[in-house]
């Protein structure tokens, strides 16, 4: 994998990195990403969203793909105030898709406003993941679709490739670290895990929120 350049919002909060995992030519990275995308697509199909909120939508790659798949069904992507992301959003538009600059812990949406709320490679970045997860469950009427790096495998892989040695393999901006078991336990606080996937080196869950 190539070097990663960290990007930040106007307040200095790390918003992501410039490593293009979607268009990498590294054969190992391509194979891993393909496995991730396959599992994500299957869980998305299982959730069958009637509307979707994508928390921490980043460049909008998945958000845009999902909006196209859902036709005229409402899709909203939210992320931090990062001009780099804003420019990429302009290239990924659809009539049913709206992007908003919002923090995950302060979402001005009504209870049950969306059928599905997703957070793909986001929860490892937020300062209070329990609160963010609870907010996602509040605004969702049916499912949460979430993924995070699987620890300690993620950091071990980084160390093996000589990345972030001083930080023991921790990717910049990763504040939270879960094993698959711990991640399931965390999400089980707000719902029932319908399906758990383990595309290497990630954990991915589809969760039916309590009361759905």
Architecture overview:
- The chain is an alpha/beta fold and 212 residues long.
- The protein has one domain (6-209): Rossmann fold (3-Layer(aba) Sandwich).
- Helix content is 31%, strand content 25%.
- It has a seven-stranded mixed beta sheet, with helices on both faces.
- It is globular.
Q: End-to-end span in angstroms?
A: 41 Å
Question: How much strand?
Answer: 25-35%
Helix fraction by DSSP (H/I, runs of at least 4): 25-40%
How would you describe the shape?
globular
Radius of gyration: 16 Å
SSE order in H/E notation?
A: EEHEHEHEEHEHHEE
Under CATH, the homologous superfamily reads Vaccinia Virus protein VP39
Quick summary:
Helix content is 31%, strand content 25%. The chain has helices at residues 27-47, 61-69, 83-90, 129-139, 153-160, 180-187; strands at residues 6-8, 14-17, 52-55, 75-79, 97-101, 114-120, 140-149, 191-197, 202-209. It has a seven-stranded mixed beta sheet with strand order 5-4-3-6-7-9-8, sandwiched between helices.
